[in-house]
Amino acid sequence: MILIFFVWSPFYQEQEKNMSLKTILEKFPRSETYLISALLEFQDSKPDHCISDEDICTVADYLGITESKVCSVISFYTLLSRQPRGKYIIRVCKDVPCFLNSSTTILEALEDILGIHVGETTENRLFTLEYTSCLGCCNKAPAMMINGTTYTDLTVNKIKTIISDYKGRQL
Ligand code: FES
């Protein structure tokens, strides 16, 4: 039984990963125009929310562009990352309307609750804390996004409830 696991599991997992990337890429025409869209969708599909060297080669090959072009786009675009991140990426809006509505207090509360600073990931790989630019809901500032979900009108108490809810989801 153990032998079957060691022989089958890595092969199976690699097949799953390659299929996933291939499936996502094939939704896009082979053009550089779709580079960011393809990278974002692929990155979101991965538990560690990062793009590996191997992924860069695969994407570059599919779109017919150089690997250095893919790397430069990842470096420039803050939503993309080559570093492994947590299961949940918390992005706190840092633009002026949110800043004027105490986003700094929200960020400090998150740092305190999670025990990390902006740009870091918790030891259990559950949360990564980042900044983001405007999320398009300035009338309900301060705001943040966790993966694809936006949270507005934030207060410290609201933050505590939200983080507690996400911690419960890992059980
Ligand atoms: S400035 Fe924060 S949502 Fe627009």
Write up what this structure looks like.
Helices cover 51% and strands 11% of the residues. It is α+β, with helices and mostly antiparallel strands and 171 residues long. It has two domains: 56 residues, NADH-quinone oxidoreductase subunit E (Arc Repressor Mutant, subunit A, Orthogonal Bundle), CATH 1.10.10.1590; 81 residues, 3-Layer(aba) Sandwich (Glutaredoxin). The protein has a four-stranded mixed β-sheet, with helices on one face. A hairpin with a 2-residue loop joins strand 3 and strand 4. The relative contact order is 0.11. The N terminus is likely disordered. FE2/S2 (inorganic) cluster (FES) binds next to helix 5. FE2/S2 (inorganic) cluster binds next to helix 5.
Topology:
Elements: H1 2-25, H2 35-45, H3 53-63, H4 67-76, E1 88-93, H5 96-100, H6 103-114, E2 127-132, E3 144-146, E4 149-151, H7 156-169
Parallel strand pairs: 1-2
Antiparallel strand pairs: 1-3, 3-4
Bound molecules: FE2/S2 (inorganic) cluster.
FE2/S2 (inorganic) cluster binds at residues 93, 95, 97-98, 134-135, 137-138, 141, 143.
